[in-house]
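ok posting inputs for the cytidine-5'-triphosphate job
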Amino acid sequence: MGRFKGRSILVGVTGGIAAYKAAELVRSFVKEGAGVQVVMTAGARQFITPLTLQVLSEQPVATDLFDLGLESQIGHIQLARAAHLVVVAPATANVLAKAAAGVADDYLTTVLLATTAPVLFCPAMNSRMYEHAVTRRNIEALRQVGYFVLEPDAGFLACHEEGAGRLPDSEVILEAASRLLTRPTLKGRRVLVSAGPTWEPLDPVRFITNPSSGKMGFAVARMAARRSADVTLVSGPSALRDPPGIATVRVRTAREMEQAILERAPGMDVVIMTAAVGDYRPADVAPQKIKKGAVELTLQLVRNPDILASLGRSRPPGAGQVLVGFAAETENLLENAREKLIQKNLDLIVANNLTESGAGFGADTNRVKIMDRTGAVEELPILSKDEVAGRILDRVESILA
Ligand code: CTP
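and the output
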């Protein structure tokens, strides 16, 4: 909530069938605290009424360059200047072509020339129009002069064809917008994040796991990507969707996670292990479903590898890789965390007490203490997991510096 607080976003809507999705997009921006000014082209008004977007944006919609009323109140140059970000969604092949050529024959294209804010185009159109060499060339030209162009989704299109050309979900557009509004303090840095629980199978239909949702690790990955890091996320089973723009590797067991992490870790500037890795697995996995018997069943468990400990052991001294672990505890929080920090050779450990309210598994908030190698402890209040992720990354950045 509130990730666009204090930000002015100008949403340009052009005339494609996906214009109806602009309503939800505008609503999402407003819900997240943005001040939204909508500009519609004449084509867009054939698909959705200005009234709809005016109600959702809580502001008059600009539709015509020569609307004397609006022009005398704000004016297109002023609108262009006030925006922290311009998002054109949906962007038709036509508006891409006009923007690439510098044509300014209506309100939106005039604003596009007049603004110095970052501009994000979200193309949506028939897949053949999108794949057309001229459209590809226009997109390339837009990128070359510093515009951002989001890839459309592939799938079933309104024209009953399959292909690339769908407007991505609002959340994907919001995430791309967040990136453009965030200082790129991790640009050029490679960050590996682990998340979620692991599944340790007993038989083909049962496994041992824990209640980790993956939310903390996904938040760390998302926030690092917002700061322009090159992020890889290795996640155990989680109901969360792959975060947009992040290479996501799905694994199930601790040993699969170990392999995925160890093979990627050497090239990384930062490794952050938020995953709740199962410490034990059943010694034998039954090939068929275990049938119940008359008496109790005893399981023998064997130790899983400690992934973080091997990362700590194998990281080359002086190579500058920053290693961050989590400590999930129910008692003696700081003592146990300190021991893990030393034993696993970490730079930072993020300790949370799973028994505290507002902390731990499944919640959208967390309450943590961050300890460094000197033993100094930074105690954070209850924060959203996104905010906790941001605070961890602040500490990582100061170590990298
Ligand atoms: N971890 C890991 N591999 C394991 C177990 C834990 O990489 N097999 C990592 C976790 O991702 C976390 C840190 O080690 O970053 C600490 O995990 P935690 O479960 O708190 O502690 P353990 O080391 O497993 O110790 P214990 O369960 O005895 O508290």
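notes: The domain at 190-400 is CATH 3.40.50.10300 (Rossmann fold). The pocket of cytidine-5'-triphosphate is lined by residues 254, 273, 275, 277, 279, 304, 306-308, 325-328, 340 (CB under 6 Å).
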